[in-house]
Write a structure and sequence with these properties.
By secondary structure, the chain is of the alpha/beta class. The chain has two domains: 56 residues, Roll (2,3-Dihydroxybiphenyl 1,2-Dioxygenase, domain 1), CATH 3.10.180.10; 60 residues, Signal recognition particle alu RNA binding heterodimer, srp9/1 (2-Layer Sandwich). It is 21% helix and 39% strand. The strands form two sheets. The protein has a four-stranded mixed sheet with strand order 1-4-3-2, with helices on one face.
Amino acid sequence: MPYADPTQQLVVEVFVRDAARSRDFYERLGFVVREDRGEFVILAWDDCALFLDERPDLTPPSAPVANVRVMTPDVDAIWARVQESGVPIVAPIADRPYGLRDFTIADPDGFGVLFGAWLAPDHQD
């Protein structure tokens, strides 16, 4: 028996300057709020969690130094939503040699969010 549910074994926690602003940003992308404690927000993409931890004195980087990958069955639909919102684009949508069609954006605090879909439908990481 595993010591942790696979969706809880590795969870990304992102430091943000304003949890409410970041919550709104991620909700517009399609994340669902599981819990909002004010300065700490638990978001979900399907069964996977993303934690937002408010740090008001945070200095955002000029470019993302890390990103989280979010797999989706329709990356082009999310790309269209991002295009309409004016979110900063780090890497535009394209078919990549590593087997994904993906793009990367920056959240309000400079953290990268990569949305992708497998080019070959039966491929899994």
